[in-house]
Specification:
Blueprint lengths: L1 H5 L3 E6 L4 E4 L6 E4 L3 E6 L5 E8 L16 H27 L1 E6 L1 H4 L3
Parallel strand pairs: 5-6
Antiparallel strand pairs: 1-4, 2-3, 4-5
Amino acid sequence: MRYCDLTQNILEWGSEEMYVWYRSPVDNKPHRYFPDFYIKVQESSGKIKKYIIEIKPLRQTAPPAKPKRQTQGYIREAYEYAKNQAKWEAAKEWCLDRGYEFRVFTEKELGIK
């Protein structure tokens, strides 16, 4: 957040200020998803662009490896992955309708090792 305050080309930003409705594949019910950040940026070309950003560990952005036997841990990870995919698809559609871009950042994009 400090980065957003100190970066000159970030015109506006907020944390978990908006929500997107999505249908969970786990319980088939509608839920609200609160993405991590909204950022309005002035690019070097002068164009202003709006982003909705989610920050997740890299391991949560890919389906979990299926073990020889289904453990509770694997089932929990599979449910979480399925919910994240549903959230992100809903967020992409929401952004497309409003002229935003949706991005998922991991430690890879953030330069964290």
